[in-house]
């Protein structure tokens, strides 16, 4: 009895009367009663000793050694002796044991909340069954949703960024205390007035870090005019990359020239093309003609005054495609998609497979068994895909020096072309991370007269951002504005419109990096709940579990 008494939720104000153990049902039932002599009225807080009546409550408690625990709690009703109080009769409160009208103890509810915050609904229900106290999905989520949000102090340095409830449709805003490295709020949208209202309700923020969103800029200016706004350096480089990629998209001929000059290889002798190859080429030409017609229509409609959404709706294409066509003074050719070239568990066995293939052994199942005996632990599907690729090479017979129907002993996939995105990545990649081949390719890009100016501007801006050379910002803006590159002129103009925040971004050490990390955690929670969690539940799982 003494041991069971010590295990009660509140051993001081509860006394164990009796207990029963049902081994068949694996349930321990404890009969207990409250022992406090006086209790306060929940309305006027006046103490009273006058008992009105008694009744019994049944509560679930934490399990004990795989036995479910049920508490039969005898509680009392009291008269309120305060003549000015509106409450005449009330039930005694046991705040350390249970809440009014609850069917479980406080400590059991706390465990349910911890499970719900960590795992969510369905996974939390499965774990609660394993732990011996099953709970329904709706009840678990209800307990989490009723949890009050933490009351945190107003941060001195606040990071602001957006996240997607549904990508491309609805967005919210996440606020992070950059000094304490913890999120403090989720806002239902990314409108300026919503952020401004939150800042007005929480005065005292001194530094605000953000991307270059105009709505966030406006909201910060309205809600915390005295705070210093800082443009995040990562987003500055991201905006720069978008400008450079748009520029390279208009220079497809120059990129192709540089690519061919950098990878000079003798052209293989081609045999007469097959009928299937001719049909593929014809289909590709038809697709190009359709894209070219759309490209011309986009520019014609734009000259007639149509907006981008109207053009996209009229031609049944995406707005991003319309923007890309409008940003390209000449028709952007499609780059052939490179074959997947990442490392594979089959790589050590490809030479053996080619030898067997050229020797006449072309049954995939037998080849699979042979390399399994040599230690291959991959799947049959991987081998089947590779032998299918060998059949394609064999039919095309591109490398005739090995004989008709043969494949080269060291077959490699085609080299990916130099696309606008790949060229952008190459220019912005730090020098110490480039290989010798990448450095040589970048040098060829820089030597091309149509690309030199843009590359110089990009590398200059990237250097001043990464090294926080704030004194170089004004000269760079003058250089970009006076250049003949319209894309960089517009980029420089946008920086000048947000000059104070950009200047602070390349001067101060403050960064939105940890905000991006919190957004990644938020995405994980959203996916864990299949994107169906509303803002109240999502906020609690995001803010209370950190």
Automatic annotation (TrEMBL):
The keyword Coiled coil does not apply. Keywords: Plasmid. Gene3D superfamilies: Homeodomain-like (1.10.10.60). The keyword Glycoprotein does not apply. Residues 265-285 are annotated as: Disordered. Residues 275-284 have a biased composition (Low complexity). Residues 293-357 form the HTH IS21-type domain. Pfam families: DDE_Tnp_ISL3, Zn_ribbon_ISL3. Signal peptide: none annotated. This is Transposase IS204/IS1001/IS1096/IS1165 family protein. It comes from Cyanothece sp. (strain PCC 7425 / ATCC 29141).
């Amino acid at each position: 009895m003494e041991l069971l008494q010590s295990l009660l939720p509140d051993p001081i104000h509860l006394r164990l009367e009796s207990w029963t153990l049902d081994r068949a049902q694996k349930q321990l039932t404890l009969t207990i009663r409250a022992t406090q002599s006086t209790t306060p009225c929940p309305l006027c807080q006046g103490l009273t000793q006058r008992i009105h009546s008694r009744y019994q409550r049944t509560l679930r408690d934490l399990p004990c050694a795989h036995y479910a625990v049920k508490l039969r709690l005898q509680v009392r009703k009291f008269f309120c002796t305060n003549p000015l109080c509106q409450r005449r009769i009330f039930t005694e409160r046991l705040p350390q044991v249970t809440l009014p009208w609850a069917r479980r103890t406080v400590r059991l509810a706390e465990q349910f909340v911890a499970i719900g915050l960590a795992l969510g609904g369905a996974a939390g229900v499965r774990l609660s069954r394993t732990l011996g106290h099953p709970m329904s999905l709706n009840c678990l989520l209800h307990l989490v949703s009723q949890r009050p949000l933490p009351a945190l102090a107003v941060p001195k340095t606040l990071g602001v960024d957006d996240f997607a409830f549904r990508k491309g449709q609805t967005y919210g805003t996440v606020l992070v205390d950059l000094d304490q490295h913890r999120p403090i709020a989720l806002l239902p949208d990314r409108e300026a007035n919503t952020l401004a209202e939150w800042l007005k309700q929480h005065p005292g923020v001194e530094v605000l870090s953000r991307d270059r969103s105009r709505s966030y800029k406006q909201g910060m200016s309205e809600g915390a005019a005295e705070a210093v706004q800082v443009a995040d350096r990562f987003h500055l480089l991201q905006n720069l990359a978008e400008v450079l990629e748009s520029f390279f998209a208009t220079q497809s001929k120059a990129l192709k020239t540089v690519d061919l000059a950098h990878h000079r290889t003798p052209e293989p002798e081609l045999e007469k093309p097959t009928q299937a190859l001719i049909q593929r080429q014809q289909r590709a030409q038809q697709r190009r003609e359709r894209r070219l017609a759309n490209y011309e229509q986009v520019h014609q409609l734009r000259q007639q005054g149509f907006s981008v959404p109207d053009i996209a709706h009229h031609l049944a294409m995406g707005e991003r495609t319309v923007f890309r066509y409008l940003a390209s003074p000449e028709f952007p050719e499609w780059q052939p998609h490179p074959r997947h070239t990442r490392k594979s568990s089959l790589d050590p066995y490809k030479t053996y497979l080619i030898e067997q293939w050229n020797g006449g052994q072309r049954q995939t199942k037998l080849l699979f068994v042979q390399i399994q005996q040599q230690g291959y632990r991959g799947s049959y599907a991987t081998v089947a895909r590779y032998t299918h690729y060998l059949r394609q090479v064999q039919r095309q017979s591109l490398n005739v020096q090995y004989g008709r129907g043969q494949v080269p002993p060291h077959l490699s996939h085609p080299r990916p072309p130099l696309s606008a995105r790949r060229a952008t990545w190459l220019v912005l990649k730090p020098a110490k991370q480039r290989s010798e081949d990448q450095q040589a390719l970048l040098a060829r890009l820089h030597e091309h007269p149509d690309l030199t100016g843009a590359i110089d501007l990009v590398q200059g801006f990237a250097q001043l951002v990464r090294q926080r050379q704030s004194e170089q910002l004004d000269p760079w803006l003058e250089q970009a504005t006076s250049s003949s590159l319209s894309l960089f002129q517009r980029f420089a103009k946008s920086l000048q419109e947000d000059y104070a925040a950009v200047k602070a971004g390349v001067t101060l050490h403050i960064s939105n990096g940890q905000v991006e990390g919190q957004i990644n955690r938020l995405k994980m929670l959203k996916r864990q709940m299949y994107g169906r969690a509303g803002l109240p539940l999502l906020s609690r799982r995001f803010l209370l579990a950190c």
